[in-house]
Amino acid sequence: MNTVVVIGQGYVGLPMALRAAQVGHSVTGLELNETVVENLNRGVSHIGDIGEAELSNALSKGYIASADPACIERADVVVVCVPTPLGAGGGPDLGAVENAAHTIARHVKSGTLCILESTTYPGTTEEIFGPIVAGNDLEIGSDLFVAFSPERIDPGNEQYGVKNTPKVVGGITDACTAKARDFYQSFIDTVVPAKRAREAEMAKLLENTFRHVNIALVNEMVRFSRELDIDLGNAIDAAATKPFGFMAFRPGPGVGGHCIPVDPSYLSHRVKAKLGYAFRMVELAEEINQAAPGYVANRIRNILNDDSKAVRGARILLLGVAYKANIADQRESPADPLALRLLAWGATVRYHDPYVSQWRPRGTDQTFDSVTDLDGEMRESDLVVLMQAHDYYDLSAMNDADVEVLDTRGVLEGKRVHGL
Ligand SMILES: NC(=O)c1ccc[n+]([C@@H]2O[C@H](COP(=O)([O-])OP(=O)(O)OC[C@H]3O[C@@H](n4cnc5c(N)ncnc54)[C@H](O)[C@@H]3O)[C@@H](O)[C@H]2O)c1
Predict the structure, then answer these.
(1) CB 102: neighbour CB atoms within 10 A?
(2) Where does the UDP-glucose/GDP-mannose dehydrogenase C-terminal domain start and stop, copy by copy (predicted)?
(3) Given this chain, do its domains 3-195 and 263-418 carry the same CATH topology?
(4) Counting CB atoms within 10 angstroms of each CB, which of 100, 172, 188, 226 has the fewest?
(5) Where are the domains of the chain?
(6) Helix or strand or coil: residue 340?
(7) Are 172 and 126 in contact (CB under 8 A)?
(8) What is the pLDDT of residues 4-15, one digit of tens each?
(9) Which protein residues touch ligand 1 with a CB less than 6 Å away?
């Protein structure tokens, strides 16, 4: 078993650190945010998927959170899970990755395996992360081992977690790949070595771009399907009976989260910067998916119009403002641009979300509280918009509700339910 430091104790780093501790590695979670460090050491988790039982179990096995980078001096393995938000030019802002790499360089000992997990463009590990951690004195592949391993965590997914989601690894040299494979194999069921770091980096962006493009495909199809009087949801169900060569994606109000709307542009940015031409599929998918909340707003306007109502002054209830079902994360949620548009049109916007008690849509200076009397608010609304089908919602009650409902998820079928 190894002495492991996981840098960044957020959605990605904390589950990884706890899983490694569970199998017997001696794990320190290195985190800049001292409040998070204190809370973790007291057994208080800030990540929805990590329950207190899991955290206290790891603490009892020696897991500790710390803000002191000196722990790297004892580490056999350092895993970096820091944020890579969208930078000004469309590529990732690598500030946190570079910071973490410099911290490692100041403390690392010879023989350590350093793994980058943060999502980024192909080439980052070889061109930026590796050279910084190795500095001038250490040779990668003999004195120090450097690899990339993309994170595939899916918040709220109860079936697939750290242990049973196959993990791709790719090192700068073959020796780096082998070391990273051996490390992950100690606590993850299936480890998949890629040819090099850049192929592992590309695998992650391919996965997210695949989702982005396929969601854009159905988001575009849903618009003309309505005009052609075709029930696209029913057509997708029919197509999905094909046992090979098809994967069902469903239209929705737009893509959210920090991965799907963000990561593919790291790839298009890299292609443009290095090669000078566009990655057109990504650009098109971005255009279509970014337009989806505007399409929902237009559907709202048309439904109200059919009911002889104007948007201005209408009371509109949005259900689920998180970016996906059954989680609280609101990053890049399509509910935000939708709310912005409805407010600009003069609507009275209210919302309910069992996971989000207060909501301030991006681009507004208004803060909303989740309504407490959901049934009463539904009765008072001119239109209810189902944005996220959280398990909390009683769909059969919504089907029977005495109010017009716009279902952006294709899960309702009541008489007063309208589709996208
Ligand atoms: N959350 C997901 O579902 C998910 C899925 C796949 C990939 N990723 C990728 O994984 C990476 C991490 O994402 P996340 O969602 O865990 O981010 P997060 O914001 O939840 O957590 C990152 C943590 O790192 C800490 N941090 C930043 N710089 C640090 C430093 N130099 N030293 C110590 N701590 C530092 C921050 O304080 C924060 O607590 C990103 O590149 C993201 O794109 C995330």
Answers:
(1) 13
(2) 317-414
(3) yes
(4) 226
(5) 3-195, 263-418
(6) helix
(7) yes
(8) 999 999 999 999
(9) 7-13, 30-33, 36, 81-84, 96, 99-100, 103, 117-119, 151, 153, 155, 258-259
- For domain 263-418, the CATH architecture is 3-Layer(aba) Sandwich (3.40)
| Digit-coded pLDDT (tens) for 199-219 | 999 999 999 999 999 999 999
Report residue 91's pLDDT band, with 50, 70 and 90 as the boundaries.
Answer: confident
Which residue from 39, 149, 151, 331 has its CB within 8 A of the most atoms of ligand 1, so it is best to mutate?
A: 151
Ligand 1: atom nearest CA of 154 is 3
- pLDDT digits 0-9 by tens, 359-416: 999 999 999 999 999 999 999 999 999 999 999 999 999 999 999 999 999 999 999 9
Q: Active-site residue numbers?
A: 259
Which pair of structure tokens corresponds to residue 339? 């709310």
Question: For residues 383 and 316, what is the distance between their CA atoms, to the nearest angstrom?
Answer: 5
- The CATH number assigned to the domain with range 3-195 reads 3.40.50.720
Tell me how far the alpha carbon of residue 260 lies from the centroid of ligand 1, in angstroms: 16
- Ligand 1 centroid to Cα of residue 84, in Å, is 7
Q: Token pair 């990540």 is at which residue?
A: 47
